[in-house]
Specification:
The complex is a heterodimer of chains A (about 140) and B (about 250). Chain A contains six helices and no strands. In chain A, about 80% of the residues lie in helices and about 0% in strands. Chain A has one domain. Chain B is mainly alpha-helical. In chain B, helix 9 packs antiparallel against helix 10. Classes of the chains: A mainly alpha (about 140), B mainly alpha (about 250). At the A-B interface, helix 3, helix 4 and helix 5 of A face helix 3, helix 5, helix 9 and helix 10 of B.
């Protein structure tokens, strides 16, 4: 739906599935939606950046596809739906929940973006190759 | 190539990136790199979620400037990737400005997903999200069909009728909920709630909301609010569509 090139489908799917798996595992043991979302967004962004370095493609491709499971799409729908049918209490509840989850995801992404490139396997390998070439 | 054309090329690249849903930071970085590679002097840009401002100095002492409003539009990752590769090659100096121009035109026209594949994506997305949000197998099957119908509506019918985004969202969600109501009337096994959630999942703006908050954290307040309000308005339109149909359905 986001018109991603076909050769990246498998990577996007794998990254997304892994993020959702982490979310499910954390939710199974602790039931803390916000923390679970934060951790899986962190891991997702890390994996996306790894893939981006390895395949020389923009991070956005893997990130948007991967994060699709986590984003509170239905939450924001529930919020506006309750708002529309006049159930203000429920609307406020879902709204705050959506905001929390969205902030958790964006914090996760921002933190993972701050990681040094040296932490990524593909980046290190490419630097090594460059050094060998220069020698 | 004279200065004016090079400036237009940079502008074109920025515009197509923004139009296809690239992040603000990425647009800014990319056009700065491209401007450096095209040797534009004192290049400055200011990118918003729905517009680009750009200035550069010319040799004859004049200042070039361009401003345009670009509506917030759906994401096309393939194009972003294409333009990204192009700009990297330009920075490395392997592509000349003329070649780049031709390549950009090509990328703009290129479609990355066939229609059939898109329909499959809509259908599978609807079905699997319906299942995640607590639907049964039968609900998922219903959502699969709803997804197919919604994709046909949005791919074949919507481009022909020139409607505003608000009307598009309201009518799409109304279509989904009307069909869901009919399905529930015909097959009482199905649950209305799961069906509707599966059907509208491809419409709801989850990614834009998260992106909006990320822009806010990047101290880009105007774009952040713009993106978030856009997400909330889109979602409100969807809810209005579903709400109207459900109220009517309950009255029957």
């Amino acid at each position: 739906m986001f018109e991603s090139p076909k050769r990246y489908y498998l990577y996007c799917g794998g990254i997304g599935a892994f993020g959702w798996f982490i979310y499910l595992v954390i939710m199974h043991y602790w039931t803390v939606p916000v923390t679970a979302t934060f951790v899986s967004a962190l891991v997702l962004t890390f994996l996306s950046r790894e893939a981006a370095y390895a395949l020389r493609a923009p991070v956005t491709i893997f990130l948007i596809c991967g994060i699709f499971c986590l984003v509170p799409g239905i939450g924001i729908y529930n919020f506006t739906y309750n708002f529309f049918i006049g159930d203000s209490v429920k609307a406020a509840q879902t709204g705050v929940q959506v905001l929390k989850i969205a902030i958790a995801i964006s914090l996760g992404i921002s933190v993972a973006y701050e990681f040094s490139p040296k932490w990524f396997y593909a980046y290190r390998r490419r630097q090594k190759l460059l050094e060998q070439k220069n020698k | 190539m004279d200065e004016r054309e090079r400036f237009d090329l940079v502008y074109d690249i920025g515009e197509s990136l923004l139009k296809n849903g690239a992040e603000i930071k990425r647009v800014e970085l990319t056009i700065r790199h491209v401007a450096v590679s095209l040797k534009l002097k004192d290049f400055d840009s200011f990118v918003l979620i729905n517009g680009i401002f750009m200035t550069a100095y010319c040799d004859n002492g004049m200042v070039q400037a361009r401003v345009r409003v670009i509506p917030i539009s759906p994401i096309s990752l393939g194009r972003i990737e294409g333009i990204n590769t192009l700009s990297r090659q330009m920075s490395e100096g392997t592509v000349t400005a003329e070649e780049a121009m031709a390549r950009l035109e090509e990328i703009k026209k290129q479609g990355f997903t066939s229609t059939r594949l898109k329909i499959v994506a809509y259908a599978l997305g609807s079905a699997s999200f319906c299942y995640i949000f607590g639907g049964t197998i039968w609900d998922s099957l219903g959502a699969l069909i709803l997804g197919i119908i919604l994709s046909i509506y949005s791919i074949f019918i919507l481009p022909r009728v020139n409607m505003s985004k608000i009307v598009i969202n309201v009518t799409s969600s109304m279509l989904v909920s009307i069909l869901a109501c009919i399905a529930v009337k015909l097959f009482p096994v199905l649950r209305l709630n799961s069906l509707i959630i599966g059907g509208i999942i491809s419409l709801v703006p989850g990614v834009p909301l998260v992106n909006g908050i990320r822009y806010l954290f990047n101290e880009d307040y105007s774009s952040g609010w713009g993106q978030m309000i856009d997400a909330v308005v889109t979602s409100l339109c969807i809810s209005v569509g579903v709400g109207i149909v459900l109220q009517l359905f309950n009255m029957l």
